[in-house]
Amino acid sequence: MTRGQLRAGARGTRQSGSVTSSDVPIEFDAWMHAVTTNPASPPDDQGELDSAAVQWLRDIYEAHGPISREAVEELASAHLTALAHEAIDAVVADLHRTTSYRPSVRFEMMRDSPTVVINDGYTSPSMMEWGRLESIAEIAGYFQEQLADDIGNWPVCRAHDAGTCARVRDDHVAWWCRPGNHDLAHVGSLDASSVRRNDPEPIAIDVELTLRDDTDPRAPGGEVTVALCGHWEHEGPCRWPHNSRINADVSPAQLRTVIVIPAPERDEVVSSIEARLRDDTRWSVVKFETTDIHDDEQDLAERLAQST
User: Which of 16, 94, 197, 297 shows its CA 20 to 30 Å from the CA of 264?
Assistant: First the structure.
């Protein structure tokens, strides 16, 4: 392990070796120097060790003694992985409670660097902090950067209509609203009621369907609701308010759904509806397209928007 791997901005570990103490005990400072020195860098350009990393090394030394560099690398990899997973779980929980966005997320040690891959995109290293709270704040900011093009500024304080950032407090990390100078919530405990969702906009989805014999003409609209809400019978309001109607007296049948939805979520939701309809064997999809709503649908769209 190099000194750069334990200081902010240049860390990474590789998994190798076993946790065994060396035979000759040495003092902590000498041992720390031995396991963090980068032989490829000049002696006077080793960088400064991150304070949290130093504390972690001291804890390792007290628990295991002067173990080998390989053993330290193995423990460091496990430590960073655990920090990353805790932080990812907290931020993803907030994202799911306050948006409909469901990105693919995975963690890996990429070229010895902790890397969080979001929708196949990443910056490596994704995490450079060794402290628990600091790593949560760092990963929260990383998610905001990676998802900005997809969902815009998130999370936004509803009370002050302002973006927030993750701040480390004494014993937790909070989403902090600068204009209001207040904490919105702990990271990992964000509630949808305190967050402003992007204003929904109405769109229409027109689908032409060839229905199989004996197919209930109400079924396609029901499947749209399943795609949006999980089941065509569900408690509470629809996640994305919508109205579907079908004309089955023509061939192909004409299904039109009016839905109000925040713009950043539109592509994902429309794709979900299309996939649901195309996968159903009770009909075949002849045409699927999104359009603007008609003038005579404005009142319907307003009623749907008011139900969010």
Answer: 297
